[in-house]
Records
---
Amino acid sequence: MSDNLFALTGRVAVVTGGCGTLGGALASGLAAAEATVAVLDRRREAAECKAEEIRGSGGDAVAITADVLDEAQIRRARDELLASRGRVDILINAAGGHIERARSDARPVFDVPLDAFEEVLRLNLHGTVLPSLAFGEAMGRQGSGCIVCISSMAAVRVLSGVLGYSIAKAGIDNFTRWLAVDLARRYGEKLRVNAIAPGFFISAQNREVLLNPDGSRTARAQAILTHTPMGRFGEPRDVVGTVQWLCSDAAAFVTGVVIPVDGGFSAFGGV
Ligand SMILES: NC(=O)c1ccc[n+]([C@@H]2O[C@H](COP(=O)([O-])OP(=O)(O)OC[C@H]3O[C@@H](n4cnc5c(N)ncnc54)[C@H](OP(=O)(O)O)[C@@H]3O)[C@@H](O)[C@H]2O)c1
């Protein structure tokens, strides 16, 4: 164990959705903490570009192209990483997000097409479960490993218009606890599973919902900030410290928790 409890030196980390807003910040953050980072995303060029960016900043990174909903691709990605780097210590499940077609802000929820509901449910829930089982299996064989899932305020508070997303994120909270208990009992204390629940961050998937074309805030964005005691949106770097801590020896006795990183949104009753 390093003297620096928070160091990730020599650990091999996979970040799904590693080219996204939060996944990208986490990939860079874990590399800065001296982990080797596998940037896993469905777009090859974007994954290679992000890995190159990390290497350019002095970190160690490889690009992996895979769809988190394709079990064969995820297992292949895992096997490739094990063949090239010998182990996998950390999995961050950052692929996910809402999809526009599944929203019900401007229509009754009954009018959301079932396939849109299923798509957003699958992306967020299956897109976390499949990589966790594939990489978790390798961690079990290894006898150590750390998985971090990405939940949302939608898991515990009602956010209008996003039913499928909310159900998926609530499922992720449950899955995080379930897998934490199962892996610790089966493989011991060095297998840990936790989640963060980010508040509101402006990203590719929600920019149009939060910002008008002229850059001003939408009514939804204003309502979010009114209910966020810190009065601002999160910056992608705001999630890095919590995830680094969860992946490090400093969190050796922490498993099965979902930690809000939300500027106080989930604590506030609105009055
Ligand atoms: N932003 C927020 O305020 C917020 C708040 C709470 C929770 N979260 C959660 O945080 C996670 C990351 O969100 P974000 O805001 O960073 O979103 P983002 O910027 O849209 O990033 C998501 C990344 O995942 C990739 N991806 C999507 N589907 C994939 C698939 N099937 N296989 C592999 N990669 C896939 C995307 O690639 P493409 O570009 O090709 O789609 C993108 O690179 C999500 O789970 C989201 O629900 C976000």
---
Amino acid sequence: MNIMNVDYDGIIPNNVGLNQDIRVRKALERWHPGYLDWWQDMGPEGFQQSLVYLRTAVSVDPKGWAKFDYVRMPEYKWGILLAPQVEDRKVAFGSHRGEKAWQEVPGEHRAMLRRLIVIQGDTEPASVEQQRHLGKTAPSLYDLRNLFQVNVEEGRHLWAMVYLLQKYFGADGRDEAEGLLQRRSGDPDTPRMLGAFNEKTPDWLSFFMFTYFTDRDGKMQLEALAQSGFDPLSRTCRFMLTEEAHHMFVGETGVTRIIERTCQAMKEAGIDDPHDVAAVRRLGVIDLPTMQKKANLHFSLSLDLFGNEISTNAANAFHAGLKGRYREDRLKDDHQLESGTYPVLRLIDGRIQNEESPALSALNMRLRDDYVVDCNAGVGRWNKVIEGFGIPFEIKLPHVAFHRHIGEFSSVKADTDGVILSDGEWEKRQGDFLPSDSDRDFIESLMHPQYEPGRFAGWIAPPKVGIDNKPGDFEYVKIM
Ligand SMILES: [Fe+2]
Ligand SMILES: [Fe+2]
């Protein structure tokens, strides 16, 4: 079959020859009803019958892989799509560097590989669960459609990981695939595996911050897994990355549009002081200091997803050739890291300082550093918008020691500049750094749906261009 094109004949669209692979096809067909039950229970609430203008992958060709059409979400073509195989691909790093990339699971690394796949897989349905109530307060049909696009693609990402589990891991893979449908974001008894994926996404500012910061963690993890010597994992992650780009676009432009609207309203009302929160809020827009607090929250929660700065798990996964560095293929070194060092920010004698650490143990730190650079690029673009309005305010990412629950800094309280605070000071000042109850109440007071085509809630500007070049008043979702 042509790997570029997706076979839509069976229940499960795919470009992996599922029709000939009877064992795996049967396993996935058995898993499918449970997935649909999960989607009905935990997917977007109140919109399962609506017609949504969604893109569906019809090919894995990077140029033009999607087609757009109205779809009811439960009928979305969730499929299994792998990027084309690279001929003669080699393991590019670790102790197996230079060997042929694996088409089957390397027996000695089986447990580690399964764990990596399950952890990645668990984040995908988690975010759908976190976002399931947002449709009720969408600021426009355009945004509603974007939310649902992100949701169905996260669903597809779950399929991508489940395919690997079912195809390559036999009975324990099947159990893990079941487990992915059993856990629930925020459930005290059966939570999702990672902290940030058990937090609430209560409002649309949170949603945009989440897709900006947390989906970007997803991007970094996928980039690292796309380097994997286990070729099917690499190929599936490469295609997921093309979808992930849209999620971060939704986040970045969502925040940009809120900033734009706020600045515009301030200018019109003649308010120059961005810290006059009460005056700005009276305009029915979100003040910039509150946006900063939301950024602080979502950035710090996302940093936790990178795990401990010094990690033997990360070292082992690299050494085994399973999980590489961000853009491993563009780095110029020995790709084995047996000897080099990497500077790691640590808490030493109560002070935050850099320490040269074995490079192999510092891989989480390194990926997190790459992530912070990536985050800062978009923050710079947000600040350009504010600057363009002549408003003296700059959004800054907080220090990496701020508000951490995992790693070096989880044992201390630090402010957004990385100054360590006593518990008492933290109690007094945390409302300066993180959204307070009254901030949340204010944002919630703005969250009313705007479902009229072409119209937008008053706290967010319209986008510059429509999805699929549709005109401004296009009916992206036919609500039923
Ligand atoms: Fe995803
Ligand atoms: Fe995503």
